[in-house]
């Protein structure tokens, strides 16, 4: 690649990062449904035309943000280690919980998509791609469950159950409703994990 091409690529990457940072602020204030390309452009300090050069829609911007977020989750769960399947299950599941507990803006990304009780906004293609990455972030959990002797279907269902438990506790933590129960959400999640592990002993 020539120096000129390299500079052009670096500039485009820099602009996209500005757009994504601006979009995350706009999504935080208005959600995916209330956000507009014009608002994102204004927040980024660009014209709407400059935004459309990089992204065809706000949904594409959202998908790029969530895609990058899920890459970070995958890195966290895939690097979780343990001496055996039980330890790896606990480490991977807690890595998932801890990532979102430590990165509330990433947690927000998962909720911008939801309007009322129904997901809205993404095309089927984008939705499938992001769902695949979410499943990849939970793959170490499912793998450890299979190592513990669960068949494919049961491991998938237990992974879904752990995911639901995790998201519910994260939401309670994020909204501070957990204070109503005078409880530590991470400790509650860890207790649920320990029960699952003991049941498979």
From TrEMBL:
Matches recorded under PROSITE patterns: HTH_TETR_2
DNA-binding residues (ranges): 36-55
Alphabetized UniProt keyword annotations: DNA-binding, Transcription, Transcription regulation
InterPro entries: Homeodomain-like_sf, HTH-type_TetR-like_transc_reg, HTH_TetR, MT1864/Rv1816-like_C, Tet_transcr_reg_TetR-rel_C_sf
Protein name stated in the entry: TetR family transcriptional regulator
Sample GO molecular function, one term: DNA-binding transcription factor activity
Record domain HTH tetR-type: where: 13-73
SUPFAM superfamilies named among the record's database cross-references: Homeodomain-like (SSF46689), Tetracyclin repressor-like, C-terminal domain (SSF48498)
Organism: Roseiterribacter gracilis
């Amino acid at each position: 690649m020539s120096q000129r091409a390299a500079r052009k690529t670096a500039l485009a990457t820099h602009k996209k990062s500005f757009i994504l940072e601006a979009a995350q602020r706009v999504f935080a204030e208005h959600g995916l449904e209330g956000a507009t390309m014009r608002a994102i452009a204004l927040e980024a300090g660009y014209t709407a035309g400059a935004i459309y050069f990089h992204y065809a829609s706000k949904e594409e911007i959202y998908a790029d943000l969530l895609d990058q977020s899920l890459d970070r989750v995958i890195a966290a769960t895939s690097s979780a280690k343990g001496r055996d399947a039980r330890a790896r299950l606990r480490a991977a599941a807690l890595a998932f919980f801890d990532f979102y507990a430590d990165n509330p803006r990433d947690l927000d990304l998962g909720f911008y998509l939801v309007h009322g009780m129904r997901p809205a906004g993404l095309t089927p293609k984008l939705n499938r791609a992001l769902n695949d990455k979410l499943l990849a972030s939970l793959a170490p959990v499912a793998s450890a469950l299979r190592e513990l002797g669960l068949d494919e279907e049961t491991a998938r269902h237990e992974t879904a159950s752990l995911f639901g438990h995790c998201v519910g506790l994260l939401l309670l933590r994020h909204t501070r409703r957990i204070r109503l129960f005078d409880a530590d959400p991470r400790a509650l999640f860890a207790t649920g994990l320990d029960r699952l592990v003991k049941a498979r002993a």
